[in-house]
Amino acid sequence: METLQFLMDGFAVALTPTNLMFALFGAFIGTLIGALPGLGPANGVAILIPLAFTLGLPPETAMILLTSVYAGAMYGGRISSILLNIPGDEPAMMTCLDGYPMAQKGKAAEALAMSAIASFAGSLIGTIGLILLAPALAKFALTFGPAEYFALFMLAFATLGGITGKNPMKTVIAAVIGLMISTVGIDIATGTQRYTFGILKLYEGIDFILAIVGLFAISELLFFIEERAGAGRKMIEVGKLMLRPKEIISALPTMFRGGVLGFIAGVLPGAGASLGSFISYTLEKQYLGKKGNFGEGDPRGVAAPEAGNNGASSGALVPMLTLGVPGSGTTAVLLAMLISLNVTPGPLMFTQNADIVWGVIAALLIGNVILLLLNIPMVGFFVKLLSVPPMYLLPMVTMVAFVGIYSISHSTFDLYFMIAFGVAGYILRKLEIPLVPIILGMLLGPEMEKNLGHALVISDGDWSILWASPLALGLWIVAGLGLILPYIVGPLLRKRMRAAIKENPTSD
Amino acid sequence: MTARGDRILGLGLFVLAVAYGWAAQQWPEPFGGAETVGPETFPTLLSVVLALSSVYLIVKPDPDAHWPMGRTAAEILLAIAILVAYAFLLEPLGFVISTTLAVGALCWRMGAKPVPAVLIGLAAAVVVYFLFNYGLELSLPAGLLEFE
Q1: Which residues cross the membrane (chain A) (predicted)?
Q2: CB distance A415–B79 less than 8 Å?
Q3: Which of A23, A493, B6, B37 shows its CA 20 to 30 Å from the CA of A410?
Q4: In DSSP terms, which residues pair with A186 in a beta bridge?
Q5: A243 to chain B nearest CA, in Å?
Q6: Which tens digits make up the pLDDT trace of B3-23?
């Protein structure tokens, strides 16, 4: 029951008034970010990083803030799915299928409440899974040597495109670009200047916070301008809430199944929250078969994907916290925060920074209760915010990005850098080069190089050490599969996801 | 079906890979003599991977995305110009004035009417300025509005 003791210590960290306040603030902002179209969770967490940084928050508080934002964004994504039929973020896509028809039938309030409860259930299951699985995985990861780590990083890149990813070669290219950016600066091991071109600013390397904010926030602004989606859309009225306890109870098994499936999808590399909600919804539909009227506004059709994507978001924290290898864009951004706080992610974090890890886990549990309490009575308020048109919202977000970056270093040079990354991000997104592997490359580059170096020193220059141990070889094989499978399974899965959405005549 | 975008990208990346890899071979031997792993090992590996994958991209490009042309392209360039001007003017004009201009201009170009756009910009600038300078004690430049 060592874990329970740690968890109690975690609660002691998370329940201090300051941390509790930041958890509340984070949950609120997160819901907002998730709800507003054009501000995904990765995006939202990214623009908050510089702020958390400049406020000089202690590491555990900063992490609690950002994890709450992360959890909140998963809650918020459902609001625009249900009311506008536009998913606030990708994982909320499946919620449109039954959420919007429910809203059209005048049951918007019920759909919102049901999905909030399902989100809570999914998150709770996911967090319990995290508590059970993470310490064990961390212990196992302690046996990893440099060769295994190198293989693990390869695995992370290979699977990042996800099973639904389009062109795996573009994931490879993106990852290499990120890794290349990470080599700029003075080499830690030898002191050699690499790619600095004699510019003093580049000696310390390129700050990934700049890159993340530029790639996400600025490129999003440019995308909105291109699509001329500034005006926003009309939305459905939210009526009075009339949810009977019986309905909630009848959806409980659905939530449970969704949460468990979502958690598993979240932990597995390359699956993530989108797949979590997709699997939960499809399996639930098959399982209940004709007993439900899925696609026409079945409350269980709202409960399943919401439980799934929230379970997955907790599950995605498992590889990030235990191995230092994030499985999704948002967890990659959380990892960036950890690295900037000088916390070395990985299995050692569980012993060396137990207060941070367990504080974050406890904050997730508390955050979920806060989110549930916040989301049922205050849903009207969030709905109002949803009607803020992007033409006002995105310039504000851009301003927050400017303020955040400027206040880190008080240098306008960094702002130009951020804009450059934003323009590059826009062009790369147009060319369908995914941005998340670039960021992951920048984050993992130094560790990857270090582990490669250590492995080769141990073997005295023999490259075969990288796949000598069975564990490393296994990781390489999974990495290979992660690159090849999307070619085979990807088109099939994408077709089914699209078919599932098209099948539904009311959703258009 | 054209695929010029990916081909140009592939070509550009190939050049980058070669230049990047070549530069890595030029570094002086680190102090203490060459070892099995030097500062150039990892970059060399990366340049090979990038060169191979960029060749793949040239040989098997994806169909082109729809690139903005004409007015939309001009709008995007204008937005980038506004951002650069914002960064440039932030210190000389101060946070409040430059933010009012930048946020106002962006709102306007995204479809808001000019007057509400500037008002929104001004309101946002003032709120954030006071929040940062007095609430959070992080100083944003006052610029022209600085009083002695």
Answers
A1: 20-39, 45-71, 111-134, 140-160, 172-190, 202-225, 260-283, 323-344, 356-383, 389-408, 415-445, 465-489
A2: no
A3: A23
A4: A193
A5: 39
A6: 788 888 899 999 999 998 888
